[in-house]
Structures are given as C-alpha cells and as structure tokens.
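Tutorial sheet, problem 5. The two components below are modelled jointly, 240 residues in total.
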Amino acid sequence: MSEQPSKELQDDRRRKALELLHDFKEAPLKEKARARQRLFDYLDALVEGTTSTRLDLLECLARDYYPDFRAQKLRSKQ
Amino acid sequence: MFIYATMESLTQDELTFHDIRSTDWLFVKRLLSDLQDDFQARERHLIGDVSRFMIGLELFRLCEQLTILNVKSPSQRDRAYHKGMLAIFRGLGEILLSDLKQNEEINIEKALGYTFADVAATVEELAIDERMHYGDMTEERCKEINRAIFGDERAAEQGTPG
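Model answer (structure tokens):
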C-alpha cells in the first residue's frame, strides 16, 4: 500500500489545482488552449488511479473556487 | 455549344482572345475566380460568426460578473438566466466548432489572432462552468473525491458555488 502524502503536500496540490483553474478561467483568448492543457494535465495526474474523473474533480474544486478563491486572486491582482 | 454560351458572357477585353484555346482558359480562370470569391465569402462569414460569438460571450461574462459572481446571493431570476444563457452559448459554440472543423482550410488565426484550439478551449470552459455552477454532485461524493485526492474533506464543507 502506498504511503499517504503529507498534509502539506496535499494542500499544495489543491492550491496548485485551484491556481491552474484560475489561470484557465482568466486566460486571454489567445492563451486559452495552453492554459486548458496545463490544467487538464495536472488534474488528470491527480485523478489517476482514483474512481473520479477530471470533471468530477473540477466540480468539486468549484466549491473552493467560487466565490472565495477567485475573489481573493482578483483582489491580489488589483 | 457550351463554349459559345460561355463566350457570350465574356467581356470585350476577354473576346480579344478569339481562338478557342484562349477562351477555354478564360472560362477556367473565371470559374476559379468565382470559387475564390465563394471561399472568401465563406471565410468572411465564418470569421464573422466566430467574432460575434466571442463578443456575445464577453458581454455574457460581464453580466455574469455583475449578477452572479460579485453578488452574495444572486436572485432566482438571474440564476435562471445565467443557467439558460450558459447552455445556449455552449450549444452555439459546439455548432461553431463543427463549422470550423468542416472548413479547416480557413485560417482564423490570421484574421482574429487566436486559433481553433483556443475557440475549442473556450467552448469547453462553458461546459466546465455548467458543471461547476449547476452540477448535481452530492456532498457525499464530493467528500469522497476530496478524501481520495487531497486526503481531507475541507472543500466539501464550504458550501456550493454561485
């Protein structure tokens, strides 16, 4: 049985997934495809070996993304 | 007979090539010119469609910002409109992608500055948004996913989006 990743690593993974989701959603049109690819590659790696799909994970991440994470990111950008 | 009919529609300049071989070539040249005109018209039409779609989407995103994302409790009416418009834009986006695929020779990047892949990613974003805003995942399932991927249940305890 594989060792459970540390809490810190798990938090980092969630933060990174949310960052990539944010980058995708805020990407200008001409960078949309690249941002999408980065997000999907990361999410695919996360769901690998689980019973979840990338879309399942996205729907789940949305509960963090809207409205808190997004609002924070936009505030920090201003 | 065919050649004569074609010759009748030729201009005075074109008729100065009076031997059959030259007029045959002119006919081909005209045909090609017509085809190029058709292609250019289709290109303009498709590029116009993509451009209008993106402008419409930009307006939708602005309304979304004002009525859904920046509001603590969006009204029922705004949520209904948001949900409906999201679905309409996604559907139109899919049709547009299909038209673009059928006309692969048309280079939208040259005219608009973004690629087919960027348009496809934008349409995919709409599908993801539908799922994120209006997906019907249960709390239990979300907890299960968080547990499996991030080892905790924190996200599931923070309420639903929108």
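Marking note: The longest helix of chain B spans residues 20-69. Full credit if you identified this.
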